[in-house]
Amino acid sequence: MSAGSPHLIGWSGDSVADSVLAVIDTDTAVIEFSVWGHWDRGLSTQARTVLDKCLAEHPTGVIVDLHELSDPHAVSAPLWLTACAQGAAMQPPVAVAVCAKPNAPLTRRLRRLGARDWLVLYATVAQARAAMAGRHPLADRMHLALPPDPAAAVLARGLVNDACRAWDVGHLGQRARLVVSELVVNAAEHAGTDVEVIVSLRGSGTGAALHLAVYDGDAILPQVRDPVPGRLGPSLVDRGLGLRIVNAAASAWGALPARSGKLVWAIVRARPEEMT
């Protein structure tokens, strides 16, 4: 598993599942991040880990729900402020909305520390969702619905070609086509459901990157497995290399739960040799 992504967020099976949950809305690309229980060193580590993974996905926004968090001394406040600052510094910026009880010690401390300069505090998650829905969607975004057929990877590669031409990032095309192809084939073979592919542009100029997202209806997160030798011997393998290829070709990749399945994403940024 050494080639596995550090950005996998599961419903269960890891140390964060009992107290922290992150779920993405595939229509809006907004992640809802919830944390509950008594704030201590262990929960702090868990929350920071998952929050970092959420921001690594570069969503359009993150809603942080703290209604069930017990933090009477408000010691978690710096983490939420830091997340807001990190989101604001990304290109394009990631909006971070914090939802907490209006009169809770944590809410009062966030206001004292200057939260008004970084974020708007919401009393309910519904209010934060409405605010996020009012934000302008990503202008540079292409979408394609595909059947659960490995051959659909050809259409996904065509979508990447269209995006590279439209956004003048042809130098990212080779690796992006490879990555999206592997993600679509993996979804078709293992999930067996309809697949949605979303390609969007992150940043601009020499810092531009392609964000590739593949959504399917199976909640089981992908695993990087050891390759299975092919019929011609161990020098030629025909199974198990898909996510290892993604790991080698993408700048970062990961997966997280969606409302009715999962989303596997990858970011392809320029490498020095591609800029010459």
UniProtKB/TrEMBL annotation:
SUPFAM superfamilies documented for this protein: ATPase domain of HSP90 chaperone/DNA topoisomerase II/histidine kinase (SSF55874)
Gene3D superfamilies to which the protein is assigned, alphabetical: Histidine kinase-like ATPase, C-terminal domain
Protein name per the record: Uncharacterized protein
